[in-house]
Description:
Elements: E1 18-23, H1 29-38, E2 42-45, H2 47-55, E3 61-62, H3 63-67, H4 82-89, H5 95-104, E4 111-115, H6 119-124, H7 129-134, H8 139-149, E5 155-157, H9 163-173, H10 178-206, E6 220-225, E7 235-239, E8 251-254, H11 260-273, E9 283-288, E10 291-297, H12 301-311, H13 313-316, E11 319-323, H14 329-335, E12 340-345, H15 350-357, E13 363-366, E14 378-383, E15 386-391, E16 403-404, H16 412-425, E17 433-436, E18 441-445, H17 451-469, E19 480-483, H18 490-498, E20 503-506, H19 513-522, E21 526-529
Parallel strand pairs: 1-2, 1-4, 2-3, 4-5, 11-12, 12-13, 19-20, 20-21
Antiparallel strand pairs: 6-7, 8-13, 9-10, 9-11, 14-15, 16-21, 17-18, 17-19
Helix pairs in contact: 4-8, 8-10, 12-14, 14-15, 17-18, 18-19
Amino acid sequence: MVSTKPAPDAADIQRVRRALLSVSDKTGLIEFATALHEAGVELISTGGTAKAIKDAALPVRDVAEVTDFPEMMDGRVKTLHPMVHGGLLAVRDDAEHTQAMEKHGIAGIDLLCVNLYPFEATVAKGAGYGECVENIDIGGPAMIRAAAKNHAYVSVIVEASDYGAIVDELKEKGGTTLATRKRLAHKAYARTAAYDAAISNWFAKELENDAPEWRAFGGELKQTLRYGENPHQNAAFYVSGDRRPGVATATQLQGKELSYNNINDTDAAFELVGEFDPAVAPAIAIIKHANPCGVATGASLTEAYKKAFACDPVSAFGGIVASNMPLTGETAEEIAKIFTEVIIAPDADEDARRIIAAKKNLRLLTTGGLPDPRSPGLFYKSVSGGMLVQSRDNGCVDDLDLKVVTKRAPSDQELADMRFAFKVCKHVKSNAIIYVKNGATVGIGAGQMSRVDSARIAARKAEDAAQAAGESKPATIGSVVASDAFFPFADGLLSAAEAGATAVIQPGGSMRDEEVIAAADEKGLAMVVAGMRHFRH
């Protein structure tokens, strides 16, 4: 039954006479408990938290003493009791509530400090089903929600970073302010929501349910951003707890704060370069506005960078550079010749760090590893009134059975370049057309409404790059071309042939496949179909 009584007006400053502390993360616990004790606060605690407080020679009552009921069932049952929840939920200025407290011997709990069982960390380390279930906290969220609901009287803390502010306020004001309690209550509900989201999504994955009836996502604030895509938009960066190597888990070694666009572009760059196994060859991807403007492999990392840069040297200015292996001093020196926003790599040697340090605004991020292009995951985006959720595009051309559909089969070099081009295609906004020659992009057409236009833009980019390099002809001559989706008509294919492409990789599946294949045969092109589309909007 929901009460219809108007809530009493609580005083702004609420004294803290009694506190319940129950934390899995003991960081800062003893210092906080000591400060509360020195402020005259009675301490109540549970299990390992109580032991830690006792070991620090601080007076503390075990919750079992308060409830007059033993902790049981391996700690599953300890705080789910009226003596605890009555103390948290009682409205101090309500006569009926205070009478009930007196009648049943319930004392108020003015401050609750709880951080939850480490469910997300347990899942992240790859624990088994049973261990994950045991790390689902029950009593913690129940107490947190109770205290947060009664924030007019009760302060609730869910992370150690708030200990200092509470101690300062107790010293300065003799209690906590309503503004602080509201702020803490908001954080508390957000924390339990994110916790439940992690649990429900884990269950969906375990059950292989791709479309559960309810879907929730949560995250922890990593960074408040100066603005979003544009200065009039507000923005912040949240992390999900997924340990996938990338911008969310990277260590920023130097440079100014990342912006919204930096984070978005850096993620795109590192996900792309993760397609290329460093055991096979060094690889570099240069990204601008979430699209690659150059991708290459080479005999060395520096060679890979030079080849990637040559694809579109104009767009590379102010771009994001991603490496699939530790950054070397030689490569860092080459990158530093032009203005670059961000460099992200698994690591960086001392020479690279020293060279980049001379560019105070250039951000250098290290990740300790590469994202696995084959690993599953979820991708979601907002739409008006809801969100779209899909599985990560973890299709890999190296796992596909490529089918030759033309009279001429591709050469070994053409086939290697086609695989390279299709890997890049997966990370280019649709409609995407990619020209590749000798393990490097030589023309990229992205984000056009017409596939023909993408083919023409990519060819024009190659012509501009040739002119900038003083070459007599564009590198698209003798290249291969990849399309992220089928050619609906032969015109896109013919544009690629006019640019000098000799081989084509595309998903296939058009009603006019036979027409497109016939056009390829007429031009002497080799064509393979991958059977997998890579739209990216």
